[in-house]
């Protein structure tokens, strides 16, 4: 538990950094490049992402799971690493070739941007972050990502000065990830042996990773496909609005789901050691902790969405406020599905159930998204994504009915609902009686008052996980 808490602190600090940096870079990019150029970047990135998905299939999730189960076996861990790396390079090569052919014959518009975006496919070849996550060594990946993000900020302000700098903007982003992946290779020496080529077996790796390819594609499909559909059926500018909203929500979610990132390898280790009961109890606590964080964030984002968009993006990005309010509903749903999917189904090897849940969600999205998009525009597409997250969670919940007690899963939910409603009531009264014209002060007041009132209500209702949270804070402060 000490290692889990340490990794959660590392990952949460990094996720907070991930939020703070865009608070500086995104407003700058929005004002310098404008909605149209950001829309082009988002649209081309969405289309290239299909090839990145193919290149990566399910290697990252599979690799993290396998390495986590072999933490204590140096030789097997080393061989598993090289098996995955070589299999990954083989599949990524095929994806890169397909992209080159596609870009040459089908992507006639924005072709220069597409070529730059292709660096993202090349990054898949050298990405070994899954290895260190499997070892539960989050310090290395956090430091690597910190360096990459800081470098991106510096280069952005130095070189991106006008809408004509869009190609440079795209290059800075994708090249940063590429060189960041390279740095991890310098940390490998003490963790693995040199490869024994005669022992390389990639067929099993590709087969098992392909099982995870279905949920990986499905999860990304109802986000990436939304962008493509909006670009084709609506406009490139609305793609940019959609992506800016999704970016903000994903940054907020990063803090909540960072627990899931560190929990997955830890749960895998517990299960491989035969500690099923301990693993189940940890799931109940994780679900409660996720709800503790996600529910007030969801309501808070809905309240400040309009004012936040005004100050964060500036003139021309007003539609993002509505999209942000709609997508905020998904914060709680994604947090819940992270527990049941990433923390429960995957570590237990229930990959078919995990795949089925996200595949059903993706199929639902493919059907409902065009209908809502045509009738309600980009707002309809956003509602389609929220509805999809509800479908995914519902299916995953159904698959857990034999192994997990729903009564224990939702034990603290009424308490969190009451605490959140109490927070909402206080904020509603404050905003009704106190008119705050300045956007930044409105956001600041609502965040401070909301946090304080929610905390008070949580201590009043005393959810079961509160004791664990307090103990974790006390241990980190010693």
Protein model, in words:
With 478 residues, this protein is mainly alpha-helical. Helix content is 83%, strand content 0%. Helix 10 runs antiparallel to helix 11.
Q: What profile does the largest beta sheet have?
A: none
Q: If helices are DSSP runs of H or I spanning 4 or more residues, what is the number of helices?
A: 19
Note the gap between the termini: 16 Å
Shape: globular
For the CA atoms, what is the radius of gyration? 22 Å
Task: Outline the low-pLDDT stretches.
Answer: none
Helix content: over 70%
pLDDT average, as an integer?
81
The total count of strands amounts to: 0
Q: Strand content of the residues, in percent?
A: under 5%
Structural class call reads mainly alpha
Topology pattern, helix = H, strand = E: HHHHHHHHHHHHHHHHHHH
Which terms summarize this structure?
about 475 residues; mainly alpha; about 85% helix
Can you summarize this structure?
The chain is an all-alpha fold and 478 residues long.
SSE topology:
Blueprint: H1 2-56, H2 59-69, H3 74-105, H4 111-117, H5 119-126, H6 129-134, H7 138-159, H8 166-184, H9 203-233, H10 236-272, H11 276-312, H12 319-327, H13 330-345, H14 351-376, H15 378-399, H16 406-409, H17 413-433, H18 439-461, H19 466-477
């Amino acid at each position: 538990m000490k290692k889990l808490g340490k990794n959660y602190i590392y990952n949460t600090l990094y996720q907070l950094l991930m939020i703070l940096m865009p608070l500086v870079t995104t407003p700058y990019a929005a004002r310098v490049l404008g909605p149209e150029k950001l829309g082009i970047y988002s649209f081309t990135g969405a289309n290239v992402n299909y090839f990145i998905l193919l290149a990566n299939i399910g290697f990252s999730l599979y690799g993290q799971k396998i390495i986590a189960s072999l933490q204590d076996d140096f030789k097997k861990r080393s061989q598993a690493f090289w098996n995955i790396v070589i299999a990954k390079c083989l599949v990524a090569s095929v994806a890169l070739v397909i992209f080159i052919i596609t870009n040459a014959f089908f992507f006639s518009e924005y072709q220069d941007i597409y070529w730059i975006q292709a660096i993202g496919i090349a990054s898949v070849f050298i990405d070994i972050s899954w290895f260190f996550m499997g070892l539960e060594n989050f310090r290395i990946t956090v430091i690597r990502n910190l360096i990459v993000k800081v470098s991106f900020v510096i280069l952005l302000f130095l070189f991106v000065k006008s809408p004509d700098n869009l190609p440079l903007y795209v290059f800075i982003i994708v090249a940063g990830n590429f060189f960041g992946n390279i740095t991890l290779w310098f940390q490998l020496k003490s963790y693995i042996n040199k490869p024994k080529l005669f022992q390389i077996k990639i067929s099993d790796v590709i087969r098992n990773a392909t099982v995870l390819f279905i949920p990986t594609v499905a999860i990304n499909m109802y986000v990436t496909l939304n962008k493509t559909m909006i670009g084709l059926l609506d406009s490139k500018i609305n793609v940019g609005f959609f992506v800016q909203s999704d970016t903000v929500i994903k940054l907020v979610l990063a803090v909540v789901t960072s627990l899931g990132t560190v929990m997955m390898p830890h749960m895998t280790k517990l299960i491989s050691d035969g500690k099923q009961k301990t693993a189940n109890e940890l799931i109940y606590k994780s679900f409660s902790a996720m709800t503790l964080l996600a529910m007030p964030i969801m309501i808070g984002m809905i309240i400040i969405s309009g004012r936040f968009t005004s100050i964060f993006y500036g003139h021309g990005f007003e539609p993002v406020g509505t999209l942000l309010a709609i997508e905020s509903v998904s914060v709680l749903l994604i947090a819940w599905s992270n527990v049941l999917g990433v923390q429960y189904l995957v570590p237990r090897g229930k990959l078919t159930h995990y795949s089925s849940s996200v595949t059903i969600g993706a199929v639902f999205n493919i059907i409902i998204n065009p209908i809502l998009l045509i009738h309600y525009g980009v707002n309809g597409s956003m509602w389609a994504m929220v509805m999809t997250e509800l479908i995914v969670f519902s299916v995953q919940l159904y698959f857990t009915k034999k192994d997990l007690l729903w009564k224990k899963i939702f034990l603290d939910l009424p308490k969190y609902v009451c605490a959140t409603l109490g927070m909402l009531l206080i904020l509603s009264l404050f905003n009704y009686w106190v008119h705050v014209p300045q956007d930044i002060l409105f956001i600041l007041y609502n965040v401070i008052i909301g946090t304080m009132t929610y905390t008070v209500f949580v201590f009043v209702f005393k959810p079961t996980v509160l004791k664990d949270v307090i103990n974790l804070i006390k241990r980190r402060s010693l």
